[in-house]
Amino acid sequence: MITIIVAVAENGMIGDNNSLLWHIREDMVRFRTITSGHPVVMGRKTYESIGRPLPKRTNVVITRSDLQIEGCRMAHSLEEAFAMFDDEEEIFVIGGAQIYRQALPFADRLLLTVVHHSYEGDTSFPAIDETQWYECSRERFERGEEFEYPFSFVELRRM
Ligand SMILES: NC(=O)c1ccc[n+]([C@@H]2O[C@H](COP(=O)([O-])OP(=O)(O)OC[C@H]3O[C@@H](n4cnc5c(N)ncnc54)[C@H](OP(=O)(O)O)[C@@H]3O)[C@@H](O)[C@H]2O)c1
User: Fold this and answer.
1) What is the pTM assigned to this prediction?
2) Is the CB of 77 under 6 A from ligand 1?
């Protein structure tokens, strides 16, 4: 199973200047809880924005170069990254935009954190074809403990 996990603003933005647009503690906790124990696949730029391998997860970084990163497995395409794991494994694609765009056709599930606010940024999530996906859960929060806008955790599955 391949799951895309992403936090996206209501205008589609996901990042700016190789960093996130917000800090939502509840979302970070959810991300850690859901992905721990599973492989996480990311683009080289997202790895650099995180700056270290995520603990308790097999980290796979996709690059076209021959870069090696201690504590990470390297792949030169999404297909090569996915082929590292058995079919029963739940693989999480954790960004960024280039990797989400290429992974979308392979994904079985989308775990979105929709931030109900518009942001300016330079990186956006690709448009979702709504005929291909159905919503199976949605949980809305009016604000975070330290975050002032509403956000929703949404799960979509492929039809
Ligand atoms: N809101 C969220 O949930 C979320 C999550 C993750 C990231 N982000 C944001 O997204 C932004 C980064 O996204 P991005 O699109 O700029 O970069 P990215 O997708 O993280 O990484 C792009 C890099 O991945 C490699 N790559 C891409 N396609 C490849 C392919 N087919 N084969 C081999 N390598 C490939 C290339 O690395 P090389 O140049 O090394 O060849 C490319 O430069 C940041 O702002 C980050 O904060 C947001």
Assistant:
1) 0.98
2) yes
Determine if residue 71 is left, alpha or beta; phi over 0 gives left, psi from -120 to 50 gives alpha, anything else beta: left
Residue-range definition of the domain harbouring residue 151: 2-158
pLDDT 10s digits, 69-109: 999 999 999 999 999 999 999 999 999 999 999 999 999 99
For residue 134, give the H/E element and its range: strand 133-141
Q: Ligand 1 centre and the CA of 34: distance in Å?
A: 21
The response to whether residue 112 sits with its C-beta less than 6 Å from ligand 1 reads no
Q: Which two tokens stand for residue 95?
A: 């960004």
Q: Give yes or no for residue 45 CB within 6 A of ligand 1.
A: yes
Write the CATH number for 105: 3.40.430.10
The finding on whether 20 has its CB within 6 A of some atom of ligand 1 is: yes
